[in-house]
Amino acid sequence: VSSILIIEDNQDLCRIYSRALQKIGHRTAVATTLGEARQHLNEDRFDMLVCDMNLGAERGLDLIRQYRHLLLGGDMITIVVSAEEQYRATCEALGVEWFLSKPVSIMALINLVERFTVPTLVQVK
Amino acid sequence: MNTIPNAIAEEYRVERFFDLSTDMFLIAGFDGFFRKVNPAFERVMGYTSDELRTMRFTDLLHPDDLADTLRVVQEHGQTGDAVVRYECRFRCKDGSYRWLSFAATPPENGLIYSSCRDITEQKELIERLRRNEERYRQIVETTTEGIISIDDKGRITFVNRRTLEMFGYAQDEMIGQPITNFVQPEEAVREKLHELDMKKTHQNEVCFVRRDGSEFWALNNSSPILNDKGEPIGALGLISDVTEQRRQRLDMQAQNESLLRANRELAVARRNAEESTRLKSEFLATMSHELRTPLNAIIGYTEIQLAGMTGELNEEQTDYQMRTLVNAENLLRLINDVLDLAKIEARRITLTEKPFVVSDVIKSVVYQTKVMSEAKLLLLDYYIDPTLPTSVVGDYLRIKQILVNLVSNAVKFTDAGRVDIRVERVGDKNWELNVTDTGVGIPTHAQEYIFDEFRQVDGTSQRRHGGTGLGLAIVRQLATMMGGSVRVRSRIGEGSTFTINLPLVTEIPSNTEPVSLPAAPNAV
Hints:
Chain A is of the alpha/beta class. Chain A has helices spanning 11-23, 34-43, 60-66, 68-72, 85-93, 106-117, and strands at residues 3-7, 27-31, 48-52, 54-55, 58-59, 77-81, 98-100. The chains are: A alpha/beta, B alpha+beta.
């Protein structure tokens, strides 16, 4: 069981991602703002981050930048959603390797998450 | 006896004056020989009286003055006037000549009495003055500037030849006239000539009127003429014709002003355009987000229900959820196409050129479109020219977008047969991506406009096959942005081949490593 933090300003999508990931046995927390996300990250340890880049007026990139030590250190796998092309290189430099575009296919999300959380099936990068 | 001493006394007195005088006296005989000279004469000429007595008057005369002098003396003899005055040069003992001014009596008892003064220095002074004046006159007359002097009433007192040439007047038509007679009155008012203080040095431009009524502009350098006490008694103006320079200057000013105006207008237009572009971009970004967000939710909810995460669905529910999903995805595609095209047209898309592995892109395209082709029982295959470098430089996402568009189209318009992707090297500088189908084909006339926005072969085909009519427009725009081109070859009933020709770039001057595609959404 992995602990996954979902950062997405749309509550419907939070619910959808959360439901899908819980359904395959993971523990999830959701944050709709960077403030909430920081609170979660400061209080808990997460194995994985699913972070939307466009959070209303806020930018997911700012969070990635703030917690890059966790990402670069390999402590936390991050899936970035909806990164505009011009930010991809920056994300990569900050330790992000996985990108999904909207609409996020639920199956794709599940597959990607399982890639890291089920080491017997797929070798962790 | 009485008279003799008196006569002697008288002569003695005269003799005294004769000796004392600083003027020169001489008495000559009618034969021309000197009879008597006073000491002043000896002093100036350097001869002694004794020497002179052996000489004739004409021996000392300057050869040039000889004829004139003799004529005057002879004429005098005939007219019998009391005194004759003349000037001539006498040779001194040292060989030099001196100018002497003579006053002589008519011949009396065979003698001529003369007094004379040495006027050599005076003559030289006059000559120097004459030469100076000549020099100045030459300067004044040969200068290319007009020179006009006026008195304190503004009347012309002098004009040089150049001035007369400029104005076309004769000298006597200008001298004595008020200078204002020759100035264009309106321009004089405009240039505020009446405010100029003639007592000060100043420079101004004046519009003058010629004799024939035509006008010319002159640059006037004016300075006051002062009398001995330093009081101004007039002014001297140096004028040069600057009509052409003035015209050029005014033209240039006008051009500058119109350029400045045009620049200002352009700046305003650019600001407006930038503002409009900014607003358009903002609108696009907002729209793109706002339109997609609810659709993402619809697709997401449908997907988790279809995945059975919310419990088992019956057959009809599954069918309806599938239809919801397909429609939502179609709508999303439509929105994406419209926004993509809008972004391209607003120049909001930038290409990210990186080395990528060609086969990765092709495989990814096949993967993404396989579901569609399999649903229609079409064979979807690809071929990559082995002479093509494994990795090329380009924007793989956009190339993939182009291929997905073309392959989707091919599948859409093909009911039976196959769709092939061929990637080929074309010479050293290009490579081509071909998508060939065995579908309905495109009529020749339609091949001209299928790359235009919102155009399909015809309206019925759009209704039957769906789609936005934007796919090929996006393909063409993207190919053009990449420095490439798109073309189509097709015959009705025999299928079509769409070809994207791109410049072949294998290296970029950077340390970028070839990248693999990130996991395709449906992969794994």
